[in-house]
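Handoff note, outgoing to incoming analyst
You'll be picking up this chain. Sequence as last confirmed:
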Amino acid sequence: MLFLVQWSPDELNNFIVLLDYLLLPLYLFIIYVAADFIRDNMYPLGHPWRPYFMPALSAKIIGAIFIGLIYRYYYGGGDTANYFFHAKVINGAFGESVIKWINLLLRIPPWYDGAYSDYISQMWWYEAPAEYTVSSITAILGTITFTTYLPIAVLFSVISFTGVWALFRTFATKYPQFTKQIAWCTLFIPSTIMWGSGIFKDTLCMFGLGWLTHSVFRMLMNKDYSIGNIIMAIISFWLISSVKLYILLAFIPALLLWILFTYSHRIRNGMTRTAVKLMVVMGCIVGFLFFAQKFAVELGKYSLTNMAQTSYTTSSYIAAVSSDGGSAYHLGSDDPSLSGMIKKFPLAVNVTLFRPYLWETRKPFQLLNALEATMFMWITLKILFTIGFKKVRKTIAEDPTIQFCLIFAVIFAFAVGLSSGNFGALSRYRIPCLPFYGMALVLIFYKHNPLEKNIFSFKR
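Most recent structure output, in case you need it:
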């Protein structure tokens, strides 16, 4: 395949121009007027969720603008710029033909179609469905923003906000007494704000994961089988599977087990209940293996056959590249086998949730990630030592929602921790599991402590 990339380095680096700064205030004004209207109508004065709505939205918007400026003026480009320039190519076809624009948007023409060669030859991600999906959504948003980066990035942040807000509503509805604490871990985790707000795949995944969780919980808990709820579940499932299929590999088993543990108490016979649990657990394991094998190509480095080899290859490559050595991490001896991968399970989960350690930081962004990881580690240790392992285990066993959050977080943490090999990449890849792990910590802690007690405090 021959791609004739026509973008010069200057064009790729200068993806934020004067027009961005001129249009940005206008779009911010429109967004905040609409947000103020929605808040006042859905969450009037006195509503327990009202205090978190505008701060959470503002955090996402600031995160999108901040990370865009970092990529423009510090990194001088990156994947967010590439998504944007693919969108510019797609929207460039709009002036020639609306049909051509739609076909490019949906990636209908084959890469060798001569009628589209002027456009396809400029898009090196045309044959990469996940990346191209992000580019197509960027192009759609570009039709109402004159295809300018910062306004599109802000719209991405708004889209992501609706997803994390749906996640917040899900858990705040189930545990209304913990509303403030739930807001901390679903809306205000720093890395999810920074990496889950701009023009990235991760932003769309946070949207999809939040809405998928919300829709499924409503269907199961509230028997809400409305058309809107079903449509949101389908859209969210499709979006996650299109952009990062491996998220579903961790989410679906956790969800099925959550359903099992939520409703198993209705089976009165103890032996039958145990048998059903074993059957569902075995079904999850078999389904997990089948899914991983069936979609090995789509899962890429996260497939069971590739994960161990990816870990070995990535760590070897980074170790050989001295300029990125400060970002590399290693999980012990290189053993690209399934047994070697399983042995690294606790190390992979640890690196995702609790590293880099403070003494491993070499760059400013690593320090921010290290501070966040240290806080997660501190809260985890505080819970284990102040509440006690037996009580923690009992609390987890008695609450299916905590089990759901932990199962998803741990499976996901294992996959990305083993496959990344780089703290920079890991800081982005891990963000889907952080709200769920944080949620589990909050629920365990406050089931044994008064609400006025600060979970972040170093006091016992």
